[in-house]
């Protein structure tokens, strides 16, 4: 069994694969204080909830954008699973040409997202990842990673608004009935949800003009299912796209870099 681990700034998403099938998955808060042993206990408890054992795991692949957490996750894999994890960074052959000024500046989650989108949805494509930041990752018609855009994420933007505006209080992030809010809560919901949807559509349209063709647009990340239905340009929502990309990287690594994964 393969354990795929996506360590983000806000959440850690894990998935257990049996071959190409995702058996189960979990989303945890990215507590930067967690130790190696705490991760080991968490892994054990998560598998136990499904009546499974960590002894079934024989491979681990990790993408992390939180350097302070990476050693502890790696250490838990070695100590509690007895597995040397594959950590995706610029030295790992993902099978994707990266046309970026300095490939080391691209987060591994962005590359594995692009890889999974290319394999599942074809090219050209754009991945919109609604995470701590909202990222746009572009793959051209030849399957190469071009780069994209980075915008402040929904969660941190909303938190900053409520922290700095004394008369505004937190509201549930749900779709309002209309764009014209008839009270403060609905006005905030309109600005947040429809506003971020508009941001996505405008950036995607600009990207499409620069590509010279219409790409497939795939939304992923924690807020994808909330925002994507309001976007005119999004073709598919795939909340677990990063895990699939990690599985593909592991499959390529296991085969010695042979074959085309999309």
Fold topology:
Elements (H helix, E strand, L loop, with lengths): L1 E6 L3 E8 L2 E9 L6 H14 L9 E6 L5 H12 L4 E2 L20 H14 L3 E6 L2 E7 L5 E8 L1 H11 L19 H28 L4 E5 L3 H4 L8 E2 L3 H14 L8
Parallel strand pairs: 1-4, 4-5, 6-9, 9-10
Antiparallel strand pairs: 1-2, 2-3, 6-7, 7-8
Short overview:
The protein is α/β, with parallel strands linked by helices. The chain has helices at 36-49, 70-81, 108-121, 154-164, 184-211, 224-227, 241-254; strands spanning 2-7, 11-18, 21-29, 59-64, 86-87, 125-130, 133-139, 145-152, 216-220, 236-237.
What is the multimeric organization of the chains shown?
single chain
End-to-end Cα distance, whole Å, is 23 Å
Q: How is the biggest beta sheet arranged? A: 5 strands, mixed
Predict the CATH topology of the largest domain. Answer: Nucleotidyltransferase, domain 5
Write out the strand line-up for the largest beta sheet, numbering strands in chain order.
Answer: 3-2-1-4-5
* Individual helix count: 7
């Amino acid at each position: 069994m393969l354990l795929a681990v996506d360590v983000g700034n806000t959440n850690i998403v894990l998935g257990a694969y049996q071959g190409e099938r995702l058996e189960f998955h979990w989303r945890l808060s990215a507590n930067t204080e967690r130790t190696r042993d705490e991760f080991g206990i968490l892994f054990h408890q998560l598998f136990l909830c499904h009546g499974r054992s960590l002894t079934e795991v024989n491979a681990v692949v990790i993408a992390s954008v939180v350097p302070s957490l990476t050693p502890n996750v790696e250490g838990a894999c070695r100590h509690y699973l007895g597995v040397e994890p594959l950590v995706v960074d610029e030295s790992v052959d993902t099978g994707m040409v990266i046309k970026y000024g300095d490939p080391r500046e691209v987060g591994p989650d962005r590359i594995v997202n692009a890889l999974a989108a290319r394999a599942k949805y074809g090219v050209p494509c754009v991945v919109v990842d609604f995470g701590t930041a909202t990222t746009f990752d572009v793959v051209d018609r030849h399957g190469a990673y071009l780069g994209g855009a980075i915008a402040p994420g929904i969660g941190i933007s909303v938190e900053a608004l409520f922290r700095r505006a004394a008369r505004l209080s937190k509201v549930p992030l749900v779709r309002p009935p209309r764009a014209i809010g008839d009270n403060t809560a609905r006005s905030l919901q309109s600005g947040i949800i429809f506003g971020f949807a508009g941001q996505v559509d405008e950036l995607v349209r600009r990207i499409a003009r620069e590509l010279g063709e219409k790409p497939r647009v795939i939304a992923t990340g924690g807020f994808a299912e909330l925002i994507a239905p309001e976007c005119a340009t999004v073709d598919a929502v795939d909340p677990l796209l990063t895990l699939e990309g990690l599985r593909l990287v592991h499959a390529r690594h296991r085969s010695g870099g042979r074959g085309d994964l999309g």
